[in-house]
Write a structure and sequence with these properties.
The protein is of the alpha+beta class and 207 residues long. Helices cover 44% and strands 14% of the residues. The protein has a four-stranded antiparallel β-sheet with strand order 1-2-4-3. It is globular.
Amino acid sequence: MDTLEMIKHRISANKFDTSKSLSEDEIKDLVAYAAHAPSAFNIQHWRFVAVTKPEEKERLKAVAYNQQKVADAAVTFIVLGDLRGHEKLGEILQPFVASGNMPQGMADGWVQTTAQMYSNPQLARDEAIRGASLAAMTLMLAAEAKGLVSGPMIGFDPEGVKQAFGISDQYVPVMLLTVGYAAPGNWPRKPRLSVDEVMQFESGKDL
């Protein structure tokens, strides 16, 4: 299946085959693909907690309104946005500077700019959510390419997740993301709005 067909084929799954698991290497490989997502200034605001053990899944399920798919999926990711990701920007950019792709002065300018920008808590939160969402979508496409199904979830208690898994206030829980092998009973792809309903060129009627 090519990329364009894969985009049209993907569903948000609710039913997972509990007899099939994913190895740690397979899970790491999914996150490696997710890490190729774009982010502002290349800060890479995303972080992932991979929940795979049955007892840990049950703990997560308890703060996700007892949705069974959390426990049934081979892995349920807690997708986090890093509110202070910009603090590592100098370190992140250093290999790019060392390879000659970016002047040191430009890298220093990016570090100063982001320190000022993300001192605004709302902007820092918005950017963390944007970046983590792009990475989560990239992971979903990687899962689809590997013959897996996935399901992004907003049905959970963010503070409960942070408390249950010892996640600091540096991170905002953006979504849960279930990944695994499909079981019978998943819905087909749900209807989508037409292009004319979601897009306009420059000016015209309001969307």
